[in-house]
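A further point concerns the way the authors explain their paired sequence and structure data. An entry of this sort, consisting of the sequence and the corresponding backbone structure tokens, reads as follows:
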Amino acid sequence: MSERVTAEWQVDEVLRRYPATGPIFIQGGRMLEEASGQMYPTYPAMTVAQFADRNGLDVDRLLTALNAEAEARAFAPERRLPFVDTGPEAR
């Protein structure tokens, strides 16, 4: 793996580079914001640290899980995922 995910990375950048990390974020908590009277939720830009803080997660544990998944995909690209992975690592 060339780069390790850090707390300063944007969540969308992590998902773009390592799509297999999606389930980790889903299990970790919410990314959306719902405002009263708003028809559709919004997904604000946030860093991994902000995501962890927002959902009461330990940022070091979250980073460990994200980097482990990204590394596993780098070393075992043929590993089947429970969803369709169309990101750059899937090619």
Observations:
- The chain has one domain: 11-76.
- The chain has a mean pLDDT of 83.
- The helical segments are 11-17, 22-28, 48-54, 59-75.
- The radius of gyration is 14 Å.
